[in-house]
Design brief:
The chain is an alpha/beta fold. The strands form four sheets. A six-stranded parallel beta sheet has the order 1-10-2-9-6-3, with helices on both faces. The protein has a two-stranded antiparallel sheet with strand order 4-5. A hairpin with a 2-residue loop joins strand 4 and strand 5. Helix 7 packs across helix 11, helix 9 runs antiparallel to helix 10 and helix 14 runs parallel beside helix 16. The two termini are 40 Å apart.
C-alpha cells in the first residue's frame, strides 16, 4: 500500500502526526516524485513554517553539529568544547522561539542517502531534541524523507520505531496545480490524459511502446497505481545506467526548458533532423526532451503534441510559407502522356518547385496513378534529396491536419531506402497518421 502525495494525504496523515513530538512522519519512495514538494505544501496556508536540510549533502556527522574549543569563561586556564548547530537548525529554532504559536517543521531530506554516521546523527535530533548545545523549541517538529531502494543507509528496527512510515507515490493532479498557468499545453494534455505517466522508468534502446491501461486496475486511469509504483522501483533499482526518467521533478524541468525556448525556437528544433543516443533518427526538439524526461511514452507523446500544435501555423504564415494551392507544373504533368514527358517536366524544375509538386502529389486525391509516377520520377532524378524547414513544416502540417492522401503517403514511405524518404524519418509517423 502506498499513499498518494496530495492534499488529502497532507490533511489526513501529515498534519495529525505533527500535533505532537512523539512520532515523525517518514516519506519513503524513489527520488524526484514530490516528497519535498508535499512537505513544502504545509507552509502554503501559513500555519506551518518549513526549513529543509539536504542530509545527503552532509559528509560528516560534524556537519550537523560543529565543535569548537574555546577558553572556559569561569577559568581562563581551562578550555571547553562548544557545539554549534547546523545553520538551518539554528535558523529554524530562532524562528520557532519568535513565533511560539506556529509549528516549525525541520525537513531532513533524503536522510538515508548518506553515510550511516550522518544518518545516525540526524536521527538523534528526533529523540534528544537537541543539536549540540542548542535545546530545540517546543514547537519544532520533524519530517523525514528517504529512499526505499538503491544506494542507501539502512535503518535498524530501533530507528524505524521513531517514524510513521509512509511509502508514497506521485499524483499528477498536484503537479498540474503546482505548475499552473506556466505549464506547457502539451505537457498539461499528456498529464491530463495519462496521469499514471507522471512516473515512468526509461525504455531500453528502440521505439517507445505505449501500453494500454490495465482494465483490472481501477486506479490506473487516475493515478500511479501500487503495481506501477512497484514496477518502477524495481526497474530503477536494477538499472545501472545513467538514463533519465519521468517524475514530477523532471517534468517540471522539461516545462521550464520549453518555456525558456519559446514557440519560435521549438518550431525550428521540431524540423531539425538529429540522431538520438540509441541511433534513431529524430528531431533536435526530441533530443532536448529526452535529456529531461528520458526515453518514455510521456516524452514521445509530448513531442507528438508539440509537433501537431507548433508546426500548424508555419504552413500558412511567416517567411518562407508555401502556397497550399495547386502548383502550375501540376497542370503540365496532367497533360503529359508518357513517363518520359513527366520526367522532362520534373527535371526542368528547381528543387523548391519539385518540393511543391511532391507535397501537392501527396495531398491530391483521385489522381493516384499520376501521383505514383511523379513520386517515382522525383526519387529517380534525385535532385531533391531533402526538404528545408519550411517545406517540412508544410508537409507536417498537412499530415497532422489529416489532409494528406493516405494511399499516396503509404506509397511514398514505402520507398524506404531513398535518401529523400530517409531524410523525413522523424516525421514518418505523423505523415502516416
Amino acid at each position: 500500500m502506498t499513499f498518494l502525495l496530495n492534499d488529502d494525504f497532507i490533511l489526513r496523515h501529515l498534519r495529525p502526526d505533527l500535533r505532537n513530538t512523539r512520532v515523525a512522519p517518514c516519506l519513503l519512495g524513489p527520488p524526484a516524485i514530490g516528497k519535498t514538494m508535499a512537505v513544502n505544501a504545509l507552509a502554503q496556508n501559513g500555519d506551518f513554517a518549513v526549513f529543509s536540510i539536504d542530509v545527503n549533502t552532509l559528509s560528516d556527522a560534524a556537519d550537523l553539529t560543529g565543535v569548537r574549543t574555546v577558553p572556559d569563561p569561569a577559568n581562563p586556564n581551562r578550555f571547553v568544547q562548544i557545539f554549534f548547530p547546523h545553520y538551518t537548525i539554528q535558523e529554524a529554532n530562532d524562528y520557532a522561539e519568535e513565533h511560539p504559536d506556529t509549528l516549525v517543521v525541520i525537513l531532513l531530506d533524503e536522510i538515508n542517502r548518506t553515510s550511516s554516521d550522518v544518518t545516525s546523527a540526524a536521527l538523534t535530533l528526533l529523540t534528544s531534541r537537541r543539536c549540540g548545545n542548542l535545546k530545540l523549541a517546543d514547537n519544532i517538529r520533524f519530517i523525514v524523507t528517504g529512499n526505499d531502494k538503491g544506494n542507501i543507509s539502512m535503518l535498524d528496527s530501533a530507528s524505524l520505531t521513531r517514524f510513521a512510515l509512509y511509502p508514497v507515490r506521485p499524483d499528477a493532479k498536484v503537479l498540474l496545480n503546482l505548475l499552473g498557468e506556466d505549464l506547457q499545453p502539451a505537457i498539461r494534455d499528456v498529464l491530463t490524459e495519462h496521469p499514471d505517466w507522471v512516473l515512468q522508468s526509461p525504455t531500453p534502446v528502440g521505439m517507445v511502446t505505449v501500453a494500454d491501461e490495465d482494465p483490472d486496475d481501477p486506479s490506473s486511469s487516475t493515478a500511479v497505481s501500487d503495481r506501477e509504483m512497484a514496477e518502477f522501483a524495481s526497474q530503477m533499482d536494477d538499472s545501472q545506467d545513467m538514463s533519465q526518467y519521468t517524475a514530477p521533478r523532471t517534468i517540471e524541468g522539461l516545462n521550464l526548458w520549453m518555456n525558456e525556448l519559446g514557440p519560435t525556437v521549438m518550431a525550428e528544433l521540431a524540423v531539425e533532423e538529429a540522431v538520438s543516443p540509441d541511433g534513431q533518427t529524430t528531431t533536435e526538439l526530441m533530443l532536448g526532451m529526452l535529456a529531461h524526461t528520458g526515453n518514455t511514452a510521456f516524452t514521445a507523446e509530448v513531442h507528438a503534441k508539440v509537433l501537431a500544435s507548433l508546426l500548424a501555423p508555419a504552413a500558412t504564415s511567416g517567411p518562407g510559407a508555401m502556397s497550399v494551392s495547386r502548383p502550375a507544373a501540376w497542370d503540365k504533368l496532367r497533360a503529359a502522356t508518357t513517363q518520359n514527358q513527366i520526367e522532362q517536366i520534373i527535371s526542368s524544375l528547381d528543387t523548391d518547385k519539385q518540393a511543391d509538386v511532391l507535397i501537392f502529389a501527396l495531398t491530391t486525391k483521385g489522381e493516384n496513378t499520376l501521383t505514383t509516377q511523379v513520386v517515382d520520377r522525383i526519387l529517380e532524378i534525385g535532385a531533391l534529396s531533402t526538404l528545408n524547414k519550411d517545406q517540412r513544416s508544410v508537409l507536417l502540417n498537412r499530415g497532422t491536419s489529416g489532409v494528406l492522401n493516405p494511399a499516396s503517403v503509404s506509397y511514398f514511405l514505402g520507398k524506404s531506402t531513398e535518401p529523400l524518404v530517409v531524410s523525413l524519418t522523424p516525421i514518418h509517423e505523423f505523415l502516416a497518421a
